[in-house]
Design a protein that fits this description.
Layout (H helix, E strand, L loop, with lengths): L31 E4 L14 E3 L2 H26 L28
Antiparallel strand pairs: 1-2
């Protein structure tokens, strides 16, 4: 038996397909702001392929934060006992009642 090198040449035509493929999913309503790769580029794990426009998500976040602050303020009022529906009885009665002034209107 002799040692030697073996050379094999293969010639073929057809479409080349990736061994692994990954579908990219973006949240509903998201708009792509930038794409960092092109067809045929080699990519590596962890590489940023695209960025979405954060505007609509930032708007939603701002609304939710405002709602949270409002609900926190309402909770603080309840905890501190200063709710609208809860009034303590007055210690003294008013000496007289107030009536709004009457006005008359006459055409000129």
């Amino acid at each position: 038996m002799e040692r030697g090198s073996i050379s094999v040449k293969v010639s073929a035509s057809g479409a080349i397909a990736s061994i692994t493929a990954q579908n990219l999913g973006f949240p509903k309503g998201a708009q792509i702001k930038e794409i960092n790769v092109h067809v045929g580029d080699t990519i590596r794990a962890g590489q940023v392929l695209a960025r979405i426009d954060p505007f609509s998500f930032q708007q939603t976040l701002n609304q939710q934060q405002a709602q949270l602050q409002n609900q926190q303020a309402q909770l603080n009022k309840i905890i501190n006992g200063s709710t609208v529906g809860r009034r303590s009885a007055p210690t003294t009665r008013p000496s007289r009642s107030w009536t709004p002034p009457r006005t008359t209107w006459a055409p000129s």
